[in-house]
Amino acid sequence: MECKIRKWKIDDAAELAATLNNKNIQDNLRDGLPYPYTEDDAKYYINEMLKADKNSIFAFAITADDKVVGSIGVFRKENIHSLTAEIGYYIAEPFWGKGLGTCAIKQTCQYVFSNTDILRIFAEPFSYNIASCRILEKSGFKDEGTLRSNAVKNGQILDMKMYSLLKTDNERT
């Protein structure tokens, strides 16, 4: 199964909607996404990503054998953190455990470090999301610790992990 990242296309809306219309995926993401997630929601998101600031938001479809199976994005921070960005991603549930997350993260970080002045990319998965933590570790991210009682999701107070990858780390791999 060949994994690639690419820019979004409006024709990806149906596959994106099918992926995000899944509570198991949404339970591992930040709040704000509609549920159920419709094709119109997907079209809106794709349009927003296509017109986003190309120096601050780097959003890609994750594909496997030319089928959209997820989403990944890197979002530049501001002010004193302007050389830092946060990464977020998800993979359609039928494709979990196949190495696509690791593949997409490596490609995305390589793209961002090669095409921008960003020096640090970080991720904050929920600490219970062991699979996501493992994906980050396999992608070269370093565990910087636990952010205790850092989020409220589905009415529960949750810890989050802090992972980072530096441009200098990426140059060594």
TrEMBL record:
Coiled coil: none
InterPro entries reported for this sequence: Acyl_CoA_acyltransferase, GNAT_dom
Database matches in Pfam families: Acetyltransf_3
Domain annotation N-acetyltransferase: ranges: 3-163
Gene3D superfamilies cross-referenced by the UniProt entry: 3.40.630.30
Molecular function GO terms recorded: acyltransferase activity, transferring groups other than amino-acyl groups
PANTHER family registered for this protein in UniProt: ACETYLTRANSFERASE-RELATED, N-ACETYLTRANSFERASE DOMAIN-CONTAINING PROTEIN
Protein name: N-acetyltransferase domain-containing protein
Phylogenetic classification of the source organism: Bacteria, Pseudomonadati, Bacteroidota, Bacteroidia, Bacteroidales
